[in-house]
UniProtKB/TrEMBL annotation:
It is found in: Cytoplasm. Belongs to the RecX family. It comes from Tumebacillus avium. PANTHER family: REGULATORY PROTEIN RECX FAMILY PROTEIN. This is Regulatory protein RecX. HAMAP family: RecX (MF_01114). Modulates RecA activity. Its main location: cytoplasm. GO terms for biological process: regulation of DNA repair. InterPro entries: RecX_HTH_1st, RecX_HTH_2nd, RecX_HTH_3rd, Regulatory_RecX, WH-like_DNA-bd_sf. Residues 172-218 form the RecX third three-helical domain. GO terms for cellular component: cytoplasm.
Amino acid sequence: MQEKKKQQEQPEFRGGHVTALSVQKASPDRLNVFVNEEFLMGVYREVALKHRLKKGLEVTVEMLQAVWRDEVVYKAKDAAVHYLSFRQRSKKEMVDYLSGKDLFDEEVVRMTVEWLVERGYINDNEFARLWVENRMRNRPRGKAMLQWELKQKGIESDYIAEALDEVVDEELELEGAMRLLQKKVGRKSLQFTFEEQRKLAQYLARRGFSTSVIKDALRRFISLANLDND
């Protein structure tokens, strides 16, 4: 098991002059910064441009600390965008991800998440709606389970209620339960005894479906199965 990376410590800064800037061989988008003929740190080109770093520039400790801070924030943004490339994330998921890396302090995480929200990369309202739509399309769940899942993602109650009201009506929930029953039963030959129905009902209940939806789904499913057997 790999050891968890720890937050990189800030170099010991001293005022002086930038004596060289060189492109990193492994990462062309990053530059090595030399101050007073000694390597000080690596920075992204965007950070170097923002602070107008160039050979001969006189720098103070405060200036170098600002460069370092922006470099850490840039790394956090880069990590966040990469994390978002797999699927949309909730605000809580992003905070947990960045905090869990142990690379960024609380202030950097806060600044990064605010930046993501301001640019629309993170939107908990939209996240809730897409989560429910995706679930009902690919892995149907009852409203109770969907509500629990979204709470675990840190979504506010109002957003959860809005997403459920907008996406899941009674017929869609019933259709989802029917699809799960079909997948569960498959090609098995069932007599739909009391015990078999009880197990199927428990199967749906564990996936968050209400008693009324379970009863309707079982009634329809058994009725269709009997028609197929006639």
